Amino acid sequence: MRILVIEDEPKVAKALKQGLEGEHYDVAVASTGEEGFFRLNSETFDLLILDLMLPGRDGLEILATARQRGLATPVLILTAKDAVEDRVIGLDAGADDYLVKPFAFAELLARIRALVRRGRTDHVLRLKAADLDMDLVTRAVTRAGEPLELTPREFELLEYLMRHHRQVVSREMLARDVWKEMSRATPLDNVIDVHVARLRKKVDQGRPTKLIHTVRGVGFVLREEKA
Ligand code: CA
User: Fold this and answer.
1) Residues 160 and 192 occupy one common structural domain
2) Of 4, 88, 144, 222, which cross-links 161 as Cys (Cβ 3.0–4.6 Å)?
3) How many domains does the chain have?
4) Which residues have CB under 8 Å from 163's CB, separation 6+?
5) Domain shared by 109 and 10, yes or no
6) What DSSP state is assigned to residue 1?
7) DSSP 8-state secondary structure symbol assigned to residue 57
């Protein structure tokens, strides 16, 4: 978990770095807006802690520009005491949360954990395609809110199809990426077809909109089609 701290006050920056490293976060510190912006564009971070009052390029400008360029990293802004307007502007500019200086370190840690959890739920640990919803942590799968009972192999197969929503997936791709077998004496095609058939039954049986389709001579695709 990598955190970029953009903070110009050496004392605050040092305290943040030491405290966060003590919690086993990997911390990079930039002491000017320019340096911070450069690092944000050239490296990958899981979280940005951004002081708004910076010399040169200020925090709000950095935040607004980074969001315009598509930065999805969660951002926690630090604002001076009573600068209510800054907070509002900061949230409008794309910050996820804010903390007013001076703050208790425990409070900062709690906010960081919440942001990281939220970010993961939204972006990485949950897949959605059509009315299917897959939780990659609990491995719960629902269609239109109703739970589907899948075997581990069916789960992997559906995850692959969902990650390739509306794209045709060949049997070779499934053999390589789901079954993880490049070559073997007996082709996997029949095995794959049987698993897809079982999965399709669980996902589509009795529903007006079918999701799993065979593309003749090529493979399969997950997309919405009326029966
Ligand atoms: Ca400052």
Assistant:
1) yes
2) 222
3) 2
4) 127
5) yes
6) -
7) S
Domain extent at residue 75: 2-120
**Shared-domain flag, residues 11 and 106:** yes
Q: Give tens-digit pLDDT for 145-191.
A: 999 999 999 999 999 999 888 889 999 889 888 887 766 656 688 89
Question: 198: which 2 tokens?
Answer: 């079982």
Ligand 1 centroid to Cα of residue 32, in Å, is 9
Q: Indicate whether 58 and 149 sit together in one domain.
A: no
Yes or no: say if 204 and 210 are a contact pair by the CB < 8 Å rule: yes
| Amino acid at position 212, single letter | I
Is residue 99 domain-shared with residue 150, that is, in the same domain?
Answer: no
Q: How far is the CA of 50 from the centre of ligand 1 (A)?
A: 9
> Which pair of structure tokens corresponds to residue 15?
């305290």
What is the whole-number distance in angstroms between the Cα of residue 94 and the centre of ligand 1? 19
CA of 99 to the centre of ligand 1 (A): 13
Provide the pLDDT for residue 121. Answer: 45
